[in-house]
Design a protein that fits this description.
- The protein has about 270 residues and is an alpha/beta fold.
- It has helices at about 5-15, 15-25, 30-40, 40-45, 70-80, 100-120, 145-160, 175-180, 190-200, 230-240; strands spanning about 50-60, 60-70, 90-95, 125-135, 135-145, 165, 170, 210-215, 220-225, 245-250, 250-255, 270-274.
- The strands form three sheets. Strands 8, 9, 10, 11 and 12 form a five-stranded mixed beta sheet that branches.
- Helix 5 (about 70-80) packs across helix 9 (about 190-200) and helix 6 (about 100-120) packs across helix 9 (about 190-200).
Length: about 270
């Protein structure tokens, strides 16, 4: 009996098993790094740890899917991944858990308040629980000092959807003895996402269209501001984000008005307004 081998069969037999395995498509190191960076980011580990989110990357094109508690978390996930080096495109298929209309309104306000409080550099040692009912935000738990207690209430009042604030925070005596908290190290992708979120969550900057980029902990804001007051508000909000090492405000002032005297920043924060 004759055995007839085609050219394709001959070529296949001449290829080693190692070469065959090498020809099978595998995830690239760049895509693997993107997925690892998302999963290990400060936002995913702290703000989204109770959500179910999957991140997959193919040649820099990233798809995120799963379910989250609200639209604030959905945006945080997308903004964090978008700020990771090597990401060229994002397909956001994350869905929000269904709620009744009343639950949706108070739930969204709750998430906005909670995110804003957890993003603030001065409240890192405070333990604040938030409850929202018909627009009334109640703050419970502990603050590390009187200034932190008052600041938490001010931040909550700034959030769209908040109609009133009931501040039930108590001051921990033990926290006063420890002094200042250790600086928190946050990856640049998370810092950029928290920066975008912070601007949206404050009434004074909610309508600002600024582009946020971060490098080694320094936040750079570009875009257009309608007035010096709006530009100063952007600087103030970004300078208060946990983990921020400095703010460079390169936003263009469209009004041509002269700027008012700037607010004094924290002594350990570098702020540049251009």
């Amino acid at each position: 009996m004759k055995t007839i081998l085609s050219l394709g069969t001959v070529l296949l037999l001449s290829v080693s098993p190692t070469q065959v395995l090498a020809a099978i498509p595998t995830i690239s190191e760049s895509d693997a790094r993107i997925e690892r960076s998302a999963r290990s980011s400060y936002v995913f580990r702290n703000f989204l740890k109770y959500d179910s989110i999957t991140v997959s990357s193919i040649t820099g094109s990233v798809k995120i899917s799963g379910t989250v508690a609200d639209v604030v978390h959905r945006s945080l996930a997308e903004d964090t991944v978008a700020s990771i080096a090597g990401v060229t495109n994002i397909e956001n298929q994350v869905t929000v858990q269904s709620k009744t209309q009343g639950e949706e309104s108070d739930g969204l306000t709750y998430s906005r308040v909670k995110t804003a409080l957890r993003s603030d550099r001065d409240l890192v040692t405070s333990r604040i629980a938030v409850e929202v009912k018909d627009g009334l935000a109640t703050l419970c738990g502990t603050a590390s000092g009187l200034l932190q207690k008052d600041k938490a209430a001010r931040i909550a009042k700034e959030i769209p959807g908040v109609l009133g604030v009931k501040n039930l925070l108590i001051i921990r005596a033990a926290a006063l003895e420890k002094g200042e908290a250790e600086p928190v190290s946050i990856d640049d992708a998370s810092l950029a996402a928290l920066g975008k979120s912070a601007l949206l969550l404050h009434r004074s900057t909610a309508r600002v269209t600024a582009k946020i980029q971060t490098t080694h902990g320094v936040i750079t804001a570009t875009g257009a501001a309608k007035s010096p007051t709006e530009k100063a508000a952007v600087t103030r909000v970004l300078s208060q984000i946990i983990g921020s090492k400095g703010v460079v405000n390169q936003m263009h002032d469209e009004s041509g008005e002269s700027a008012a005297s700037p607010l004094l920043p924290p002594t350990n924060l570098r702020i540049v307004v251009q």
